[in-house]
Amino acid sequence: MEPNNELENESNYTASNYRTPDGAPSDIVIFTITSEEKAPGKKTMPARELQLLLIRRKRWPFEGQWALPGGFCDEDESVYDCAKRELLEETGVADVHLEYFNVYSKPKRDPRGWIISHAFLALVNERYLAGRRAQDDAADVRLFPVSEALAMDLAFDHGDIVRDALEKVRVKMLTTTIAKQFLPAEFTIGELYQVIRTVVPDFEEPNFIRKMTSTQSREGILEPARDENGALKRSNRYSQRAAQLYRFTGCEPKLSIYG
Amino acid sequence: MEPNNELENESNYTASNYRTPDGAPSDIVIFTITSEEKAPGKKTMPARELQLLLIRRKRWPFEGQWALPGGFCDEDESVYDCAKRELLEETGVADVHLEYFNVYSKPKRDPRGWIISHAFLALVNERYLAGRRAQDDAADVRLFPVSEALAMDLAFDHGDIVRDALEKVRVKMLTTTIAKQFLPAEFTIGELYQVIRTVVPDFEEPNFIRKMTSTQSREGILEPARDENGALKRSNRYSQRAAQLYRFTGCEPKLSIYG
DNA sequence: CGAATAGTGTCTGTGAGACAGTATTTA
DNA sequence: TAAATACTGTCTCACAGACACTATTCG
């Protein structure tokens, strides 16, 4: 358990003679779903796309290459707090879904030395990134469609991190209610379906409405939205015929392969 | 992204003036299921219990207290390789299920300094720990029932780590086929049920046999064991009436809350 | 009217769940 | 023969899946 015998007791604990890490950054894969009106002015469902935020490095190593936002951890903060701080600094947003998912510690992964990186994924509703988008292509901070990001040659092992993050968010999209991160508090079944499909293109459920609305089959994940008088709330922001609005109930189902 | 401006380019990269971590250990929560014959000589199902392995610390800090096995990572290995190495050193076993699950980085969690710990969980079949058990209570390495371990005052934040690991292994027990780590290659439905219940006491399925054997309902997670001639294999090691043996097929089901 | 989205009617099959009953071997 | 484990028969109900059909509003 001990790195050396110098650490045998408190009195002779000075500094380790052993090699210690040169840094422990938190890196963040920030996902968002952009939506764009296909036919402006017409009531039609928007085109949605899963995007992630990258920054262009200003310094050695990998100067000029795109990388994940992130930064080094301080002694007086946890890696989670570090990620939260960096997220605020990079994107100006707080109070978004932020979740640790893996550590990257392969030797020589960083030419600056022995650096162990902690990877987080953040799910940010596009409305929080509104200001950011204006800068667009010219800037050193920019959103990329995931398909595009996967094909890029990113700094460090950030390509691996992005792939792992994508895999993770796809699994969680189907097994938890994180879809809510990309939706308003009240939404239609059609919107929910579109969001799921944006993240997990393989997810195909004809009759999705039927399944989500049939009695207690979905174990009460969703509930119809109602106004103060208890009347059902409907919306026609994306459709001709008004659609029932739903909200997540807050209960997370427990999944099992055995029953 | 940079900790300081000293790192601006390769030529003037020497050593950081900034504080860097004092160590990055891997700690391992080693679970096993012990089984003990209730009535020796009688053909009856054994009593099973979920246990985990702890070591008693020989040095400051937390001298004399029980802690998770683990050790400091070297620069030329990943945290996973470090965990694997420590697992071999502590228990003498290799080729067991070993899985990273979380990082612990709360400031001041370790009185020796700024130490970020990477926690793994290992699932070890009790037959691999056979030698270890002989030493038993007197030794500095010993198995504890999880209920007992949870009530102990462990070194560092290892109590938190154990709780998180238990939560994790319970979820995975129901959503993946890791039950196979605690079972022989061929087993009866009764054994499988017992193993699941040992890890997740809340799991109650009267009619478990029915569910697991009814047509393709379990999507082919299990298949009946057959000998060279294709005849079904049965066992009566734990029962009077011989029971059908099964094996995991290797296919992991994909779960979804949406359909 | 046609396009676009939202839903419903209806049928078929199959699994979940309950629970009592039967089967096989051992002490 | 009683105990212990391993199944099986049978019934009911609900949902999954398919797919065509209706509903509502916009341009």
Automatic annotation (TrEMBL), chains A, B:
One Gene Ontology MF term: hydrolase activity
Keywords in alphabetical order: Hydrolase
Cross-referenced InterPro entries: NUDIX_hydrolase-like_dom_sf (IPR015797), NUDIX_hydrolase_CS (IPR020084), NUDIX_hydrolase_dom (IPR000086), WH-like_DNA-bd_sf (IPR036388)
PANTHER family, sorted: ADP-RIBOSE PYROPHOSPHATASE (PTHR43736), SLR1690 PROTEIN (PTHR43736:SF4)
Keyword field contains Hydrolase: yes
Domain Nudix hydrolase residue range list: 21-166
Domain of life: Bacteria
Entry keyword annotation includes Hydrolase: yes
Name recorded for this polypeptide: ADP-ribose pyrophosphatase
Transmembrane domains' residue ranges: none
Origin species: Paenibacillus flagellatus
